[in-house]
Amino acid sequence: MAKKLVLGRGLGALITIDEVKTEGSSSINEIELSKIKANPDQPRTIFEEEALEELSMSIKQLGIIQPITLRKIDEDSFQIIAGERRYRASLMAGLTTIPAYVKTAEDDTVMEMALIENIQREDLNAIEIALAYQKLIDTYDLTQEELSKRVGKKRTTIANYIRLLKLPAEVQMGLRDKKIDMAHARTLLTIEDTPSQLELYELIIDEGLSVRKVEEYVRAISSGEQLGDIRKEEKVVDRIKKGGGKKASSEEFDLLSSHLSKFFETKVQISCGENGKGKITIPFKTEEEFEHLISIFDNIKR
Question: What would the CATH number be for the domain defined by 11-156?
Fold first, then answer.
């Protein structure tokens, strides 16, 4: 009876178990590139052309420093387990053969080896990692806890990556293409409706918002505000702060009043006469509310 497949702490544990027999483990084989096929379960979906060209130039000068890993399909063909970038760069460099370790493994084991090898390398983008984790969970019917033990990652880390797959496709592509980082994406996940996620995502791209600023917008959106209204208020506040002589309109005063009301957590009223003079009224109903206002002013002063 075959032993149960257990990966332990990652690829290193996987390739030493009884089910995976190796050929030439103490020697390196030169394999013709024409006989090698890519792995359809390769988790990496993006191979940057510039990086491949740099690797190709290095291979031309120094050769292949680290052999790739293959499995033998039949006498005349091999499939890549690990090292597709080196394989592609070698083709670009005009090589006809490549040094490789050849292993014997079943289809499901090869897929698992390829996924885990790439995850352990930690050079996949966040979406590729998330898809790899999800594929392992679906294929082997694992819980996140079981997967964490197999790949040597914390369960919370795995959960955070998989949650990224709940984002709209446009946001996932932006994360994949490094238009936003994972911290931005995780913050967007706290917004429940897709239109607001996409609206804020576009704003992050257009204005290069910091994660802290995105968190500020998310809190406001989560409390029921519209991003467009928040932006209008900010523009009015910025214009008034900068001055410039232009008198604020009644609509702008309303927006400013709304902005201050949210800040002080009470209904703030602003009145202004034709001569530019006016007053700001911050009401309170109880002694506790008054003390709360005083604490806000104290914090501003500090």
Answer: 3.90.1530.30
